[in-house]
């Protein structure tokens, strides 16, 4: 199925993907995922990538997870790659300077469980690293989540970011909030998240760009990580 990733701009992105995890041991898991997505600027909707296959973009990611046997600590890391490209803008002339590849993505998450695994502290660190130009974008996101009942949790977090574009460093900030509705018998989670951030631009030096993101996701989980 194709899903719209953004409805706030004229350009709408549609994606299709598949992820698969393999349990190596009771406390170790590895995963791999692939995806295909494209942008639509007209009225063709999700069939535009089919009509114009040159707009299609391939992506892949590889992940690793470790947890303690009592589930009080979890560490997971994921690295992703995409062959998408975008234009770099000259800040003085506001013209296209060159075309560059999307950065390699590297994410690390540390999760600590308390209160019989009803309260969680998460520390997420993300990196965007370019291989064909001087660009680095790093973020740190501490967040606290609590399950008030077995089927409902709420979370709050903050975000701090640092970007280096050419010789120009820039700091950014953000806030996030979300809730999870869990269908325990089906191992199914419905997640709703809101994020607002002022992030350094990826293409224009000394510019803070506002992002407002609404994310709704549906996932099914095995009993690898449980609260029972």
Structural commentary:
The two termini are 33 Å apart. β1 (3-4) and β2 form a beta hairpin. The protein has one helix at residues 48-51; strands at residues 3-4, 12-25, 28-40, 57-67, 73-82, 85-89, 96-101, 104-114, 119-129, 135-149, 152-165, 168-183, 188-200, 208-220. It folds into 2 domains: 1-64, no CATH class; 68-228, Porin. It has 228 residues and is an all-beta fold.
Give a quick summary of the entry.
This protein is mainly β. It contains 1 helix and 14 strands, in the order βββαβββββββββββ.
The pLDDT mean sits at 80
Largest sheet: 12 strands, antiparallel
Beta percentage is: over 45%
- Helix coverage percent of residues? under 10%
The CATH C-level name of the largest domain is: Mainly Beta
* Low-confidence regions: 1-14, 223-228
First CA to last CA: what distance? 33 Å
**Helices and strands: which structural class?**
mainly beta
What best-fitting shape do the alpha-carbon axes yield?
globular
Number of domains: 2
């Amino acid at each position: 199925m194709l899903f719209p990733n953004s409805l706030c701009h004229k350009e709408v992105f549609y994606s299709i993907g598949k992820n698969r995890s393999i349990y190596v041991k009771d406390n170790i898991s590895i995963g791999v995922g692939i995806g295909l997505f494209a942008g639509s600027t007209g009225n063709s909707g999700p069939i535009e990538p089919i009509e114009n296959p040159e707009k299609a973009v391939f992506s892949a990611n590889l992940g690793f997870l470790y947890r303690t046997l009592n589930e009080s600590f979890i560490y997971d890391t994921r690295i992703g790659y995409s062959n998408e490209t975008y234009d770099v803008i000259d800040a003085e002339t506001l013209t296209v300077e060159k075309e560059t590849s999307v950065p390699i993505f590297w994410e690390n998450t540390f999760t600590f469980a308390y209160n019989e695994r009803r309260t969680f502290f998460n520390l997420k660190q993300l990196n965007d690293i370019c291989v064909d130009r001087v660009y680095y974008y790093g973020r740190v996101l501490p967040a606290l989540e609590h399950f008030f009942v077995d089927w409902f949790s709420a979370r709050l977090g903050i975000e701090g970011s640092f970007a280096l574009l050419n010789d120009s460093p820039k700091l950014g900030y953000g806030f996030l909030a979300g809730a999870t509705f869990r269908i325990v018998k089906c191992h199914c989670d419905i997640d709703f998240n809101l994020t607002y951030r002022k992030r350094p631009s990826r293409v224009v030096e000394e510019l803070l760009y506002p992002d407002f993101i609404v994310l709704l996701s549906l996932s099914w989980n095995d009993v690898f990580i449980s609260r029972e």
